[in-house]
Protein 1
Amino acid sequence: MSLFNTPEQRKAGFRLTFIACLVAVIVLGMGVFTRLADAGLGCPDWPGCYGHVLWPSDDHDVARANEAFPDAPVEHDKTWPEMIHRYLASSLGLFTIGILILSLRSREPDQPVKLPIFIFAFIILQGMFGMWTVTLKLWPQVVTSHLLGGFTTLSLLWLLTLRLNNRPWQIPAIAEEKLNAIKPLAVIGLLIVIMQIALGGWTTSNYADIACPDFPKCQGAWLPPMNFADGFNIGQHIGPNYLGGTMDNAARVAIHFSHRVGAIVTAAYLIFLCAKLYRLGLPAAKKLAYVIAAVLVAQITLGISNVVFQFPIDVAVAHNLVGALLLLTQVTTNYLVFTAAVNRGGIKV
């Protein structure tokens, strides 16, 4: 069974929404690159960059920019990632407008309308978080929320793609009871992956990525000194420049260590969920289990490689993008199990 329907069976806006998903992946990847390259404040103002539509380039403009922002001199290796990320994010907003217009103009039955409206509203909120990331000088709470917003945007667009595809699972009656039993397990899987992504976001927002530079131990110990109270203090004051982080080593170790433990929990649960899907005895469910397992293995490999190879940017970006793909597998799982139609003819798909 193919995941996608033929073009004539899809609802209005499918192609545009699918393209928007691809753009969202690029935006997410560029955002992660910007963050890991310490370019989050590459442009200290918003929406322009040192008052420019792009960024100051000639010597005269650079000198004026440095005079206007003495605490944030121009660094060209940081200005361009920030502005490219902003423009890519803006283009994604245009896609959501187009999707919304197509949804409102469609006369097809059961055409999703509320979800496109919600996505459009959420994109506006995400843009505000992008602004606050700069104006509040990388305040970890905002940076983490902005990252989660990027994952959420991608997930919502993917969910809309699945709905516009108009292809629910056809489940034989004999598998109905097993399918109902999987529904709460699928929800838990989605929540666990979201929590792990949030932990990852908090880790990178507080520059705790390199707090444990060795593997499998952390700073040469299985249980290094950790300060969870400071590490997960969400009451950090607004005001200081958080570029580079402000937490001490023990607090950052607590964050990094928690992310590693979360990875173990996530992996164990998703393996359990894959086994449950496989035991449904349906070819489509088995394929889904294989996909989840493959993405999980890739994510674990990238996570370990991050530490072993001392956190190269390309591996770290890939780790975030595969994490997004893992989230999409859980969105897909929940969509399929909750929209499955029981086929009383007993046909397996």
Protein 2
Amino acid sequence: MAKKDEFSRIGFIMAALGMAIGTGNIWRFPRVVTQNGGGSFIIAWLVFLFIWSMPLLIIEFTIGHHFQKGVLGSFKKGMGEKFTWMGAFVATVSTAILFYYSVVTGWCIKYLYASIFKFEKLSSPEKYWTGFISSGHAVFYEAIALLIGGMIIAYGITAGIERVNKFIIPILFVVLIIGVIRAITLPGGVRGLNYLFSPSLEKLKDYNLWLQALTQSTWSTGAGWGLILTYAIYTSKKDDPVYTTATIGFGNNSASLLAAMLVVPTLFYALGGNEKKLFEVLGSGNQGLTFISVPALFKNIAFGQILLILFFLSLTFAAFTSLLSLLELPVRILIDAGLKRKKAVLTIALFSFVLGVPSALSLRVFNNQDFTWSLGLMLSGFFFSLFVIKYGVKKFREELINKISKIKLGKYFDFIVKFLIPVEFFAVIIWWFYQSVKLDKWYNIFGEYSLLSVLSQWGIVIIIYILINKFLSRKVAK
């Protein structure tokens, strides 16, 4: 019998950290934490690490570790054949994110190259960004990202995913630490650090801060994506679900904090400590901050090119390690359905390229897909809580987690799964509905941030999967 292709213990930790640490840590977290009260946001964000992200990561790891199937197969075995469609929806959310995330990874490659070899052209960053996006060259860089990612995935778990993550993740942390040291030694850098970490009890009363912290925790840690479930299939029986996921959660949050400590003090210095200008820059959104504001400001400071290279190197590494996990999820589903790994990788890579092209050619399409499926992660997380409730929360905790974990979970875990996760899900959905209805033309099905557009895409996917549930259960989730 052939030896199972599985992660070593340290290899799984590195791969799981690679899954969790992505562009959301490097470009989104510094913006969101500064806009939402600095230290106050960090407090709320840490709370949700314990009452949303880590419980879901524990659930996902345990499901993959126990059932040894991809997302569809796991939902079929754990909830019953009638619920295979839920696993299909979870897989669709992550795969839809893969389509445009490969585009983001391509952007990062392009700008890493530019920061090293074309630094002088970044002196007009808005013009450079506009020219790049309008030229259609993003399609080429998307193809490069998928080609490299596909080649790594094709090598399998030990020789591919583990080897790459064991190389990249330590370097990523070293790069971030070097960047932080340089940022805080800039004149006024410590002021930026104080601004970042100073909490305000008054700001903790703002419900918007808490909702932003929850969405950041969801996006950043990979909780509810089905990714850690997929990786957990390739772990040994000795791996501890609680200890392992705690390492992932804290490692991911550490990377986010390091990224903020690199970006915020540097921006604070470059803007002369002007908080109003800082908020203007941060208000330019993820793309504007990363590809326009950061190059514009870094070019005017001492050793700016070095800082910019470090920034885009960390961003590219983070994008690639997350891209690998996003590719492996649908690849594993095709393997469960009977395809050989290399054929499954080729199928998913080509499919991802074709469906990612619209996002590469149009920022309007990109923004719509990002908005639609980022929110879909909340529904995916809710489905995982329903999985455990259907299976039996106490039974899941005692028989699947506590029997193999050195850290025993108590009844508080049951409370989080049964009550807190559903409440958090509905709170964000209701808040989102309220915000969307206030927008002009929320009913425009082709709008970038249209409520009707999102619900239509979700609805079409769910209805189709419910109608073909028997086929999915018998043919795909074998």
Protein 3
Amino acid sequence: MGGSMMLSFGEAFSTETPASAEGELGIPRITLRHLVYFAAAARNESALRAAEELNVSPPAISGAIACLEQILGQKLFIRRHARGLLLTDSGHHLLLEARDVIGRVHEIEAIRTNKSRQVRSLSFGCLGDIAPNLIPPLVRSFQAHYPQVDIRWQTACHAELKQRLEDGVLDVIIVLDFELSPAFQSNLLQNTPAQCVLPREHRLANGPVSLKALEKEPFIMLDIPSTRDYFLSVFGDLGLQPNVAHRAPSADMVRSLVANGFGYSLLNFCTPDRRNIVYQPIDGDIRPSHLVAVRQYRRRASKISDDFVDHARTIALESNLCGTIQ
């Protein structure tokens, strides 16, 4: 699915709904069983594996999918010979809705039967550069409070995480607030101002840094889309043009280059590091940045999702991801 905006559920499906889509007396023809079977097929990319997971027959899965396609008037899967099922765009949209409905029913059951420890799942993504400092304490803390929740995580860059959130693969992503779609809901975890990264023995290493004084010196660019544009805007806000001498694919590489005297850099995350570098604030008014937990507006947030975001905020602050570390 391309682009940064998702169609509404109604726009994703035909505007001419078959007459049979509405049952008598307004009773929906789509059942919870249809949605559970469909979601399992999407998760496993196979009717056979979905049937094994749910302990039902493969024809039951295939029949539910066929019924949904008839009711909605759209193909939900592309059938690939010997390669399983691939969701269509309409299938992606239905999967988001199905997960919400199924999740809500599970919550109702948990409240009604007082099963506060009912097994559930949550998938989140995190920027790769901060993942080593954030994911382990976050997952450990969250699992201590929700030991029965199956929590899964993955790391990637901004663009990939945003796409996976749009596709419904992830429930929450932890990113910087760069180029976020209006379809996303953001919760602030921590302010992450850009800081200057310098060799420990640099002449400007002992206090707030004027980038004007560094303009002629070699600059090491963290060459990641969105992040790269943000750092260039920091210079632009001050009317400056950096002397880009090196481009690095990761923050770890940036820190290593700085520590070995190849130049200076800017980073938002000043993770603990003793490799002969220091972090200093930047003089002047520059564009702020923030670490945020992002979800889709169109997906109603569950209590588990809300609690996860609260945990992420606490862990981000405790981890000192953007403190001045010398």
